[in-house]
Amino acid sequence: MLTTEEREHRDLLRTRRQIVEHRNNVARQIKSKLLFYGISSPFASTTRWSVQYVEWLKTITFETSYLKEAFELLIQMYEYLTRQIARVNRAVVLLCRDKRYREKIKLLCTAPGIGRLTAIELLVELQDITRFKSAEEIASYIGLTPAEYSTGERTRQGRITRCGNKRVRTYLVESTWVLITKDPYLRAKYLRLKSLRGGKRAVIAIARKFLIRLRRMLLDNVPYRMAA
Asked: What CA–CA distance (Å, rounded) separates 65 from 128?
């Protein structure tokens, strides 16, 4: 059972994720308008918008005041959400320094693909790692347990159930894509699985192994070690 303080920590990180997703939606709307009206950007394609790019957006003119108003509102919304993200990021930085998380974050950051933000997101969602009595239990909580199908005496495993904590699963899969570029053993395992099951299923399988390693790291208080 989470304490009031733990719920508040979790709510802070979930609010941050919601604001980021909202800003991403606004960015997609802006890009959609540019595409619809045939406006090409002078900047190289990037997933992150620079200050210069946003300033360029403000220089775009439209034939009618209505279009101009709609476009400017989207830009203002994007800038507002950017400021809100900066605000919540400051609160997250302070939370990372809390004695409850500080050492655990350092530990998790020894794993390829895990940075401070991902580490604190994982910690506030999982909280006390000892509440998961086995690797299977934590995998089930996150939704990384394969579904089983039975026909007569035969049982086969299908795709993951996706029933579980979607947030942690998302963070973990994102980190796993980095992990397989850094850990030679897991990369080789990923490539073998990819040839048999396809890329998506392969990365999910590696994410499950990654999760089990992270659990063991936290339980034993040991840094990440590349597999032999």
From this structure: 55
The tokens for 223 are: 């840094």
The helix (H) or strand (E) run that includes residue 113 is none
Q: What is the pLDDT of residues 77-116, one digit of tens each?
A: 999 999 999 999 999 999 999 999 999 999 999 999 999 9
Write the burial class of residue 29 (CB in 10 Å: 0-12 exposed, 13-18 middle, 19+ buried): middle
**pLDDT tens-place string over residues 153-174:** 443 444 544 445 788 888 899 9
Sign for the CA dihedral angle at 208, 213, 216, 221 comes to negative
Beta strand ranges found along the chain (DSSP E): 146-151, 154-160
Answer whether 160's CB lies under 8 Å from 181's CB.
no
pTM to 2 decimals?
0.82
How far is the C-alpha of 126 from the C-alpha of 219, rounded, in Å?
13
Q: Is residue 151 classed exposed, middle or buried when 0-12, 13-18 and 19+ CB atoms within 10 A define those classes?
A: exposed
Domain ranges of the chain: 4-96, 102-220
- Coil, strand or helix at 144: coil
d(CA 150, CA 163): 19
